[in-house]
Write a structure and sequence with these properties.
The protein is α+β, with helices and mostly antiparallel strands and 290 residues long. Helices cover 37% and strands 24% of the residues. It is built from 11 helices and 13 strands. The protein has helices at 12-22, 35-39, 77-82, 84-89, 91-98, 103-108, 111-117, 125-130, 228-234, 241-259, 265-289, and strands at 5-7, 26-29, 49-52, 62-65, 68-72, 134-139, 142-147, 152-154, 157-158, 165-172, 178-185, 196-204, 210-218. It has a 5-stranded antiparallel β-sheet with strand order 4-5-10-6-7. A 3-stranded parallel β-sheet has the order 1-3-2, covered by helices on one side. Strand 8 (152-154) and strand 9 (157-158) form a beta hairpin. It is globular.
Length: 290
């Protein structure tokens, strides 16, 4: 491995200044579960400098402010999983982080890193998108906010500027009237990378009529997005397995309209439909137990 400069700033302002002065040859290191693996690859494009932000205390922790939850970008997956605020107000995010990698990965990997890496299999993005999450990005020139739905260009590419650092993620608390779930399918039962996943938020009114639906699949589209065509299928309808099946088929149909038919379609086409149905059923199961 070629040598590079290593910096370990203690404040966000210091990190932003270092990043600006280092130019495009710098890489941010947070938990290191993605960057360090990448740097070991023979084909890796090695940076001129590494800026290790893991010691910036201001970027860690989970707090509430009014009806919002704020997660520091350096908060680990394990800390998200153990948070009482997340368990109460964003249970589908808690489910998602519990399925990430191994205990060692969850103890080191950060929610900000999972977003910034922008891998198609990122487990935190679908639930955060159903929560209508927003991101705060900081640079030496100031800060800006952007909706998570507008953040991704394609796998591994975001609209973040080279001199910007993700500092926090925030979203409104899920009300008690909303039910949510996250399901994931991997090649094995543990330590798996998502082949497909689905995050769902559902509001059910009187007489079992669906009043609101949010559906975001993972690893299904070129970039993450709500499948509003499937949400329309659900809204105004009475809860039933048949309507869940119909919504699942609509997600599958829309997925293919974006990706076209390829070698994996024969597998993904029926599986994503089933995962959507299961996610919707889980929402209702939780409602019955509430």
């Amino acid at each position: 491995m070629k040598p590079f400069d290593y910096f370990s700033p203690k404040t966000l302002n210091e990190a932003c200044s270092l990043l600006r002065n280092s130019g495009e040859g710098a890489r941010i290191l947070a938990g290191g579960t993605d960057v360090l693996v990448e740097l070991r690859k023979p084909s890796a494009h090695l940076p001129k400098s590494i800026i290790d932000i893991s010691r910036i205390a201001a970027l860690k922790g989970i707090t509430e402010s009014g009806d919002s939850i704020i997660i520091g970008a350096l908060t680990t997956h394990d800390e998200v999983h153990r948070s009482e605020l997340i368990a109460k107000y964003a249970p589908l995010l808690r489910s998602a982080v519990s399925m990430i990698g191994s205990p060692q990965i969850r103890n080191r990997g950060t929610i900000g890193g999972n977003i910034m890496n922008a891998a198609a299999c990122a487990d935190t993005v679908p639930p955060l998108m159903t929560l209508n999450a927003r991101l705060k990005l900081n640079s030496s020139l100031g800060e800006r906010e952007i909706a998570l739905t507008d953040f991704f260009v394609k796998p591994y590419v975001t609209i973040a500027h080279p001199d910007e650092i993700l500092s926090e993620i925030h979203f409104h608390k899920l009300s008690l009237a909303l039910r949510s779930s996250f399901v994931k399918l991997g090649r094995r039962n543990a330590l798996s990378i998502a082949r497909l996943s689905v995050a769902v938020v559902l509001k059910v009114g009187g007489k079992g009529i669906i009043e609101e639906a949010r559906i975001v699949p993972g690893a299904a589209f070129p970039i993450w997005q709500r499948v509003r065509e499937a949400e329309v299928v659900l809204v105004g309808q009475k809860l039933s397995r048949d309507i869940f099946v119909e919504a699942g088929k609509k997600v599958s149909e829309i997925m293919i309209s974006y990706t076209g038919r390829r070698w994996s379609t024969e597998y993904k086409e029926p599986v994503i439909a089933v995962l959507v149905r299961r996610a919707l059923e889980q929402c209702i199961d939780k409602e019955k137990k509430a």
